[in-house]
Amino acid sequence: MSAEIVVIGAGVIGLSCAIKLQANFTVTIVAKDFPAPFETIDPIAQINYTSPWGGAHNRWVPPSPSGENAREHAFALTTWKHMRALRDVNPESGITFMKGIEYLEAPSIEYTSLTEARAKELNMEGFRLLQPGEFPDDRVKWGCVYDTWCVNPMVYCCFLLRKFTMGGGRIRKRELRDVAEVFALPPEDFGLGRVDAVVNASGYGIGADPNMYVTKGQTCLVGDPCPATLTRQNADGSWTFSVPRGYDGGTVIGGTKEVDDWGTRPSEEVREKLLGDFRETWPGVPAGRFYTVIADIVGRRPTRKGGPRIEGEAIKDGHFVMHAYGLGGRGYELSWGVAEEVAKRVEDHFA
Ligand SMILES: Cc1cc2nc3c(=O)[nH]c(=O)nc-3n(C[C@H](O)[C@H](O)[C@H](O)COP(=O)(O)OP(=O)(O)OC[C@H]3O[C@@H](n4cnc5c(N)ncnc54)[C@H](O)[C@@H]3O)c2cc1C
């Protein structure tokens, strides 16, 4: 199709959408921030660029018996399959497959109703319920293990950016005040010299969406590797997790989920609690040989009441904008499902 699509955003969502759209359109990414080595990302100036600060791993959130979460589960499944195919073809892509282990102290119905047969129907490969004898302590009421993936975020996003540009995609570093501003950028910014549609993958979203809020997350990057990704839900509502980043990227130990907290500074006290909780839960931590603290991480999950906005809109002058923002704490794990949906809706628009 001879149409030019501009994707606003070079986080995991913008990059994935841009690659999918590239199969049928001329695509330019316009963004303020682009992927770069993790060590070069500024923790204050770039705190609103969430993708560097994610773990990032896939943690299944199964649909409830009444079907809630079914769309997200389908997105996660599409992403899981895509990640495995990418890992096989592009071993440099920053993706590592490993076991995912879960220990829940207060499991909700989505989990208590999750049998091994149901997990098979939901295509959760390698799923096995853990027996109480396999729990780390008696506060854990439910546990499971499955096959999952983790990425080293900036190795992965740099890989996506390279794949996009090697596929003929163009990039422009610009900061926008409004989605409509894209249509006023100089024509020479774009491959076809015009803009036919826009994908708004700006993370928190450009413009005033009253449903958006941030969920601050503090984690700690340690230099040590870890053989699995582990998630523990504590009865007080807090979480303990590890996300091995692979590719010599250490392991992220987390993490907090602080709604509407715009704070930028990590707390040492929180760090010590995160590391202490993880040590208690993960019996494999060898005393004195783990936790080379590299950095405290503070990020802002772009969260949205009612879930991510994946929706087309005709704005001023009839311009078509496909929104894809508000992915909260699940941007990586839903990315290829979102990208597929976005590409389909944009194709439908031009059909
Ligand atoms: C501590 C923590 C742990 C996490 N762990 C996981 C995990 O394990 N698994 C998982 O799936 N997710 C995880 N996440 C969430 C995940 O990181 C986010 O959902 C994801 O990065 C969001 O990607 P995005 O592309 O939507 O937004 P972003 O990465 O924020 O990218 C937004 C893009 O839009 C551009 N942009 C924004 N405004 C403008 C503007 N005005 N003009 C021009 N460009 C603009 C930015 O420059 C950037 O390029 C975690 C997040 C945190 C903070």
Automatic annotation (TrEMBL):
GO terms for biological process: D-amino acid catabolic process. GO terms for cellular component: cytoplasm. One of its GO terms (molecular function) is D-amino-acid oxidase activity. Its cofactor is FAD. FAD binds at T50, S51. InterPro entries: D-amino_acid_oxidase_CS, DAO, FAD-dep_OxRdtase. It comes from the Eukaryota. Signal peptide: none annotated. D-dopa binds at R301, G329. Belongs to the DAMOX/DASOX family. This is FAD dependent oxidoreductase domain-containing protein.
